[in-house]
Amino acid sequence: MIIELKLLLLIMAANSAPVLANDLFRDRFTAPIDAGRKFFDGYPLFGASKTWRGAFSACVLTPIAAWVLGLELVIGLAFAAAAMAGDLLSSFIKRRLNRPVSSKAIGVDQIPEALLPLLVVQSHYALGIMSIAGIVMAFTLIEITVSPLLWKLGLRKRPY
């Protein structure tokens, strides 16, 4: 399996882990990362949907996925941490734009959480700009098309 496909699968694992953890744990362990703090603009820093449970689940599941794909566990952990940082960045941007928690923002929702982990492993895998751009675009397209299906199956709260 080519490395670009493996990295795309890792992005999907990292971003699926919080959704799976939500289904598994429901209302337990839902402490928000921002602890309800607000930024100087009066809006939440990230919002209540960004929880320690979600970040922790990504940091557990992604190294396992990396190992299954034949990659190093530490790569999976670094990848998960960067994907969650990208997800937090997305939420931070959306709060500054006064977008509601869990609102749809194509591009803002997908690019940071795919791009940051790829930048973390770029030199390790000698990824070129075209490989990175292709993986980010593939993740964005998959996310946009698969999310409505997951919603219909009851695996997501919203169709996006």
Task: Write up this protein.
- This protein has 160 residues and is mainly alpha-helical.
- It has one domain (3-152).
- 62% of the residues lie in helices and 0% in strands.
- It contains 5 helices and no strands.
- The chain has helices spanning 3-25, 52-68, 73-96, 111-121, 129-152.
- The longest helix has 24 residues, at 73-96.
- It starts with a helix and ends in an 8-residue tail after the last helix.
- The mean pLDDT is 91.
Supply database-style keywords.
single chain; 160 residues; mainly alpha; 0% strand
Helix and strand layout, with pairings?
Blueprint: H1 3-25, H2 52-68, H3 73-96, H4 111-121, H5 129-152
Topology order in helix (H) and strand (E) letters = HHHHH
Please estimate the helix content. Answer: 55-70%
Q: What structural class is derived from the secondary structure elements?
A: mainly alpha
Output mean pLDDT: 91
Which residues form runs of ≥5 with pLDDT under 50? Answer: none
- Number of helices, counting only DSSP H or I runs of 4 residues or more: 5
- Sheet with the most strands? none
Give the strand tally: 0
What's a quick, concise take on this entry?
This protein is mostly helical and 160 residues long. It contains five helices and no strands.
